[in-house]
Design brief:
alpha/beta, about 350 residues, 13 helices, globular, TIM Barrel, four-stranded mixed sheet
Amino acid sequence: MANNNEFLEFNNAMKLYELDIFTLGKMADEIRQKKFGKKVFFNSNRHINPTNECADICKFCGFSAHRKNKNPYTLSQEEIFKEAQKAIEIGALELHIVGAHNPKLDLKWYLELFSNLKAKFPQIHLKALTAAEVNYISKLANKSYQEVLELMAESGVDSMPGGGAEIFDEKIRDYICKGKVDSKTWLDIHGYWHTLGKKSNATMLFGHVESREHRIDHLLRLQKQQEKSGGFNAFIPLVYQKENNFLKVEKFPSGQEILKTLAISRIILENIPHIKAYWATLGMNLAIVAQEFGADDIDGTIQKEAIQSASGSKSANGILKEEIISQIKDAGFIPVERDSLYNEIQTY
């Protein structure tokens, strides 16, 4: 069976890619159905990206202000509050706040932002700052990441997103995102966040210069971290977006390769509750198909998105909740609106 420990050994995990897609899909779907039946989860959320001015130059990124994006911006806190107000008025239950590594926005600025957002909108779930941002801000503030995480929690941050993981292999990181948080520190930051009683997500960026071996290594490291700290809510395999960046990738993964990777994620990461087929990088059609291959979530309404859309995704203006519900129903699944911690709000 797929739900035993044999696939937690590297060579056995690699053999999963050798299976035909239908066998692999069935194995992953058995795990998914056992956990959630035909439910597909989504939430009403709003992405707010405070800045695209970045000290780092990641080769895969089309979002940060650089030679291919000559429109740098940094939002004021007032502008962020206005965006949050509008989002909440049309139904957002979560604010997802991630951006660039901007030296002008220090720890004090972020803590004030979080405290003020919570004071103005106490009902909102605040999901904020990737481990890469935490690492950068901690160095900027000359504080440990542990101190930064504790201050974030005190200032009202409810959970952390999973960005910045990319691929854990350090040789690949050195090529695609040199200078960014290293893989061990990324895992340690999430591990410490979990000790504070908080939840987070995990990601993997794939479909660029990495190999299948690198993906398996990444998944196994996440599995081990979850065994230790237990705080990952969901795993999100992010498909590399190819426009407006400096990675010269000539061969992109097929739909089958993407679905295989999603299915393998479900099989290896049985100790992480949810697998999210993030429609902003997959497109809605493939995200729905992925629900047959181990995924049980498609993210949410988003409302406005700047990071993936800067590299070619069609996610800039989000998607209506009614459209999400319709697509899930048409595919034969049960749409379930959830909050950020996967408490079920309404079944449609």
